[in-house]
Write a structure and sequence with these properties.
250 residues; mainly alpha; 10 helices; 3 strands; elongated; Membrane protein; transmembrane helix; membrane; transmembrane
C-alpha cells in the first residue's frame, strides 16, 4: 500500500491517496487565519487510520506547508515507511506462537460450547442420544458403530480426542486467516457464520468418505441442525481469536 500526499498550492487541495480511501484537506482564508477540514471517502477504515497516523507523524512539515501556503511538491510514503508505523503492525500476528495460542484457546472454547449445545438440544430437547453418547460420538462417525462398540471405554477417549484435536485445528486456521478480515473491517461474528458452514461441510464430507455409518447428510433437518451446532462452535472461537488479536495490538 502506498500513500502519496500531493500539495498543490494554487488550488489549496491536499489529497492523501491510498488504495481505497481518500482524505482531502481544503484550506480556506477566514480573516487573518487559515483553516482546514478533512473530508473522507471511506471504504477501508484501517487504511484510513494508517493514513492519519502517517499524516500525524509528518504534521510538523505538512501543516507548516498548509498554514504558510508553501508548495512542497510530492511527499511519497512507501510501503517500508508504512510498515514502520505502529498501526500496520497491528494487522498481523506478532509471532506464530501468538497465533497458535489464540487459535488453540478459541478452538478449545468452541469445542466446549458446542458440547453444551449438543447436551441441551440433541440430548435434552431432541433426545437423539444419551448424554454419555456425546464424547464417543466422533468415534462412531469416523470409524463406524462396530468399532465404537468393540473398543468399549476407549471410544470415549478416542472420540474426545478427535473432537478437541479437530476443534483446535479449526481454531488455528481461523487465527491464521483472521488478520485478512480484520484489515478489511469485517466483524468476527459475521466471519464465524460462514466459517461454521464451511467447517460443517468439510468435516461431514470427510466423514462420508471415511465411513458409511452416519446420518443422512442430505436431510434438510440434519443440515440445519449441523449448521446451528457449528455456529455455537465458531462464534466463541472467532470472538476469542479477535480478543487475543486486539490484545496483541495494544
Amino acid at each position: 500500500m502506498a500513500f502519496t500526499p500531493t500539495i498543490r498550492h494554487p488550488s489549496h487541495v491536499y489529497p492523501y491517496f491510498s488504495k481505497r480511501c481518500v482524505i482531502s484537506i481544503f484550506v480556506s482564508q477566514e480573516g487573518d487565519e487559515d483553516s482546514f477540514r478533512i473530508s473522507c471517502n471511506l471504504s477501508d477504515w484501517p487504511a484510513l487510520i494508517a493514513a492519519v497516523a502517517i499524516m500525524m507523524n509528518r504534521q510538523s512539515a505538512l501543516f507548516g506547508a498548509l498554514t504558510k501556503g508553501v508548495d512542497m511538491g510530492n511527499l511519497n510514503v512507501s510501503r517500508s515507511e508504512l510498515n514502520r508505523t505502529d498501526l500496520p503492525s497491528a494487522w498481523i500476528w506478532p509471532s506464530r506462537q501468538a497465533m497458535l495460542r489464540a487459535g488453540v484457546a478459541g478452538g478449545l472454547l468452541g469445542a466446549v460450547i458446542i458440547w453444551i449445545y449438543e447436551a441441551l438440544i440433541w440430548v435434552g430437547a431432541q433426545h437423539l442420544m444419551p448424554l454419555a453418547g456425546i464424547p464417543r460420538n466422533a468415534t462412531g462417525l469416523v470409524f463406524g458403530k462396530a468399532v465404537q462398540e468393540s473398543i468399549g471405554v476407549w471410544a470415549y477417549v478416542v472420540g474426545t480426542g478427535i473432537h478437541f484435536v479437530s476443534a483446535i485445528a479449526w481454531g488455528v486456521l481461523f487465527a491464521a486467516i483472521w488478520p485478512y478480515f480484520r484489515r478489511r473491517g469485517v466483524e468476527a461474528t459475521l466471519v464465524a457464520l460462514g466459517y461454521a458452514v464451511l467447517a460443517w461441510i468439510v468435516m461431514h464430507v470427510a466423514i462420508m468418505i471415511a465411513s458409511d455409518n452416519h446420518p443422512n447428510y442430505y436431510d434438510p433437518a440434519v443440515i440445519i441442525g449441523g449448521f446451528m451446532s457449528h455456529i455455537f462452535f465458531t462464534v466463541p472461537l472467532a470472538l476469542t481469536v479477535k480478543r487475543q488479536f486486539e490484545r496483541q495490538a495494544q
